[in-house]
Fold:
Amino acid sequence: MLIQKISEYLQIFRHSFIVKCPIEWVWRFFTDVKHLEIITPEQIDLKIINTTSPNIVQGQEIWCSGKIIAKRRMSWHSKITFLKRYEYIDEMLAGPFKKWRHLHKFQNIDEKLTEVIDEIEFELPYGMLGKLLEGYSYKQLQKTFEHRKTATVKALENK
Structure:
């Protein structure tokens, strides 16, 4: 897990883990929109409101809501802006961040092991005020992605 500043406000968060599962199974799981509700921490209470497709496809839009910051329900609208086999990017069009660009990448280690890689470029809103929330945001991302790892392993390795 790595968080890196690339400008005064723009940050990069990286997280990866290995799942004992063939890459095709992992890809199928992560390209079904329902995976979001399975791997998101329960306290976020994520609800998918609408989606233009049940599976991740180029140009797809997703509207959801959840208790993302300070246990306050917020709406989120994102779009799949890039898609190729074993890799896609979703970008927030409207929501709680000034910028959110999430690369999802899956690498085949061997026929039974897959690496799941997440790289997020994000910027908090409110300029200098947002900078005061960086520590809190880092901790929340770390907790969320550790939960995603555990939930993914549980969902895929226990089939």
About this structure: The beta strands are 2-5, 10-19, 47-51, 61-69, 72-84, 87-94, 99-110, 113-123. The chain has one domain: 2-157. The chain has a mean pLDDT of 90. The two ends are 27 Å apart (CA to CA).
